[in-house]
Design a protein that fits this description.
Layout lengths: L6 H5 L5 H18 L5 H14 L14 H7 L4 E2 L9 E2 H4 L3 H8 L13 H4 L11 H11 L13 H14 L2 H5 L4 H12 L5 H17 L1
Parallel strand pairs: 1-2
């Protein structure tokens, strides 16, 4: 059986504090019970990664409102700014301020998505507490939680669906077993499994240290 998540401890990890924690606590408790996030070490790592990916449980849909400069910083091999014009890259000024076009472009022909014209990049942009993205990953989430988020992607932002899909993904990538080590190296492996890299590592570690402390005190 999973640990009962203390609402006061949860509030320390959330923007909006206790009112937001009271909304999320039942869903997170159910998800942790179902997917064996059942020890302090597992729970601290899980909540830390969720807090980072969702900006303190406040953002459940990926934000594609990028400036041209930010496009080049995030996707340096895909976009350029004049006067540079390297072959094979896209003019960032033409994409900045067009979030749907950006999503359809950067997520095209990946993760089970179709080409730019399919609209899959925008339709299956990051949602939920772990920012699940791509047609294939939405399909996995739908199978895991028994809710057709592939047909209705916005269902993934509802608290119970967001929590369940995050915990299901967590279990699927073996994060419970990694979290059992309770080491910085293992936490880094979890980050790579979720993100494909180490983006936001300072933030993730901050939340992890905070989560470990407040869970121990609860």
């Amino acid at each position: 059986m999973a640990m009962q998540i203390d609402t006061q401890a949860l509030a320390c990890l959330m923007k909006g504090g206790l009112p937001r924690a009271q909304v999320w606590q039942p869903a997170l408790t159910m998800a942790c019970e179902r997917y064996a996030v059942a020890t302090p070490a597992r729970l601290a790592a899980f909540l830390a990664q969720l807090a980072h990916e969702s900006d303190g449980f406040s953002q459940l849909v990926e934000n594609f409102h990028y400036t041209a400069a930010r496009l080049c910083a995030v996707w340096p091999h895909r976009f350029f700014l004049l006067p540079d014009e390297p072959a094979g890259r896209l003019d960032a000024d033409e994409y900045a301020g067009h979030p749907e076009l950006i999503a359809n472009t950067v997520y095209a022909d990946r993760m089970g998505n179709g080409p730019v014209s399919s609209g899959d990049g925008w339709r299956y942009r990051g949602r939920g507490l772990l920012q699940i993205s791509g047609r294939n990953n939405y399909g996995d989430a739908a199978q895991d939680i028994g809710v057709d988020v592939l047909l209705n992607p916005d269902l993934l932002v509802e608290p119970l669906n967001a929590a369940m899909s995050a915990a299901a993904m967590w279990q699927r990538i073996g994060a419970n077993e990694l979290a059992d080590a309770d080491t910085a190296e293992a936490f880094g492996e979890i980050t790579f499994a979720i993100n494909g890299g180490t983006e936001g590592m300072d933030s993730r570690v901050h939340y992890w240290q905070l989560a470990r402390r407040v869970i121990q005190q609860a």
